[in-house]
Amino acid sequence: MEMLLRLTGDLSDVRGRVQDLEDQGVAATLESLDTKVGGLKETLAAVVEAIQQLQAEPEEEEEEEPDWPGTTPNWTDDLDQDQARELWDGLTEWCQNKLWPIYVQDVWKPCWYRHMRLRVELTWVWRAYEWSYEKGKGVPPTRVAEWHVRWVKHIEAVLKEELKECGLPRDGLPRPKHRVPLPQPPTEEDETPAPPPFRVTDFVDPTFFEWVEDNIRKRRPAENSEDEKAG
């Protein structure tokens, strides 16, 4: 009987120790979980803070390309010498390479640059052309169609009207405003006369460059030119 009581006591002691070990394991596990949860909380807090900062920063808006040709330089404005030269260069290049040889050669006269109204009209037709062809992808073909159907006819009519009193001497116009020299017929003394200095079918007459330089020179100096002189 005494031995049974001793065994019962030992068994109870063993159970107590097992319970202590189990309690210690649970405590360690809970402590480990607390550590991991704490780390996750810190990570989550950092993520939330980063998102809040991104939301607080203003987003940079992409500049949309305007659906219009932009401003057209006006010859009647107070252009300085640099602006005038840039305008002359751009308009002349476009007229010589695009408008004149392809669209309006039949109604063109080499004195066109002397006519203020023509310069004004040609400039906006040039900018409308660039708007139709040179603004990247997504441009509807109707924009190009409008330029050909509408504005080519318009500038043809303006050229005819503005240049009607210029060119070769002819019946009803013995003294043209801007005269194109007639070719000299061969004679007994000179069977092969020299050709005239320019023809009515030329893009410009020989005085073009001198006339343009004079037009630029009469304008006010550019601001940067004045600064360079002062320096």
UniProtKB/TrEMBL annotation:
| Source species, domain of life | Bacteria
**Bias category Acidic residues: which stretches?**
57-67
| Disordered: region residues | 55-75, 169-198
Protein's name in the database: DUF4913 domain-containing protein
Q: Which organism is it from?
A: Streptomyces mobaraensis (Streptoverticillium mobaraense)
